[in-house]
């Protein structure tokens, strides 16, 4: 329900995408959550108690070529909470960060990341101000990859400006040499022919 609120999709359709249940099974589960005062009577939104019961984790990056380092990092991020929201950098932000145009557009990168099983929702970031996206998601934890240049202090100070008390977790990669840049360097022009 949290995810459907962010991406404006039907709760039942979103659940059907992730879990194989009939409409009556889904409605029965939702009724159970209503009785526990976790879901509102509209069957589409969480109550305050429901929202407070979730631990939202936010991770972000360019994700131009999905590789084992990404998988490891996103699995570690998912393990930190209940819902993993991943933000894909816009094309222009990706160019600023990587000093070159990504192989895939922001929409393609979003689709790729959304297809990963550990990811509950993937969004494209806001241009120029990452804290607009952070404010939209309102996570309890912001997970930073081992190679991300953001400093923890920058993130915590930005969160304070939007009245958000989020922890910052710096994730380690068991595969630190795995990166999109190293893959592009190693395979060069042959990637463009794929």
Can you walk through the features of this model?
- By secondary structure, the protein is of the alpha/beta class.
- It has two domains: 2-50, no CATH class; 55-192, HUPs (Rossmann fold), CATH 3.40.50.620.
- It is built from eleven helices and five strands.
- The chain has helices at residues 2-7, 11-18, 23-35, 48-52, 68-78, 91-98, 106-114, 130-137, 152-161, 180-187, 189-192; strands at residues 56-61, 83-88, 121-124, 141-144, 167-170.
- It has a five-stranded parallel sheet with strand order 3-2-1-4-5.
- Helix 5 links the parallel strand 1 (56-61) and strand 2.
- It starts with a helix and ends with a helix.
What topology does this entry show?
Blueprint: H1 2-7, H2 11-18, H3 23-35, H4 48-52, E1 56-61, H5 68-78, E2 83-88, H6 91-98, H7 106-114, E3 121-124, H8 130-137, E4 141-144, H9 152-161, E5 167-170, H10 180-187, H11 189-192
Parallel strand pairs: 1-2, 1-4, 2-3, 4-5
Determine the number of helices (DSSP H or I, runs of at least 4 residues): 11
Q: β content, as a range?
A: 5-15%
Q: Provide the CATH topology of the largest domain.
A: Rossmann fold
CATH architecture name of the largest domain: 3-Layer(aba) Sandwich
Whole-number count of domains: 2
Please list the strands of the largest sheet in the order they lie side by side: 3-2-1-4-5
**Order of helix and strand elements from N to C terminus:** HHHHEHEHHEHEHEHH
Poorly predicted runs are: none
CATH class of the largest domain: Alpha Beta
End-to-end Cα distance: 38 Å
By CATH, the superfamily of the largest domain comes out as: HUPs
Q: Gyration radius, to the nearest Å?
A: 18 Å
Biggest sheet: strands, sense, closure? 5 strands, parallel
Overall structural class, as computed from helix and strand content, comes to alpha/beta
Helix content, binned percent = 40-55%
- Mean pLDDT over the full residue set: 86
């Amino acid at each position: 329900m949290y995810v459907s609120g962010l991406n404006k999709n039907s709760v039942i359709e979103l659940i059907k995408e992730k879990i194989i249940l009939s409409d009556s099974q889904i409605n029965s589960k939702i009724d159970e959550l209503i009785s526990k005062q976790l879901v509102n009577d509209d069957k589409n939104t969480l109550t305050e108690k429901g929202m407070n019961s979730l631990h939202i984790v936010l991770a972000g990056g360019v994700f131009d070529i999905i590789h084992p380092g990404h998988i490891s990092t996103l699995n570690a991020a998912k393990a930190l909470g209940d819902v993993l929201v991943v933000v894909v950098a816009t094309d222009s932000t990706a160019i600023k960060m990587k000093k070159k145009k990504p192989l895939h557009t922001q929409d393609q990168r979003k689709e790729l990341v959304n297809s990963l099983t550990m990811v509950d929702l993937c969004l494209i970031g806001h241009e120029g101000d990452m804290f607009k996206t952070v404010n939209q998601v309102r996570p309890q934890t912001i997970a930073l990859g081992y190679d991300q240049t953001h400093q923890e202090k920058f993130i915590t100070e930005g969160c304070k400006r939007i009245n958000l008390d989020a922890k910052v977790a710096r994730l380690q990669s068991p595969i630190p040499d795995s990166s999109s840049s190293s893959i592009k360097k190693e395979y060069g022009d042959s990637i463009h022919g794929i």
